[in-house]
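Blinded run. Sample ID left blank on purpose so nobody reads anything into the name before looking at the predicted structure. Input follows.
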Amino acid sequence: MFSHLLTEYETGQITCYKPGQFICSLHPEFYTLPNAFIRQYHNATSSWQKVRLKYLESELTPYADEAGFEQIAQALGIAKPVKSKLSRVPGPQPSS
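Blinded prediction complete.
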């Protein structure tokens, strides 16, 4: 078992290590899978009703991370946010 798990909250990066020994560095992956995709790979014969994703890397790419989130936003009619520059607020400036 890993002695320590560190998570950088800004990036979601997970680092696993034992004292004095680096083991792994993982970035969480998120997938937004449409109903048709789930139905196609659904295994109803399994007692857990699994959806087998092993060996489907190329099929999963359009639904991974940001691309998957964009599909949700489009379905909900939400425009992609645009970062705007902040304007200076008039008023007294701090003296240095």
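Unblinding after everyone has recorded impressions. The chain has a mean pLDDT of 77.
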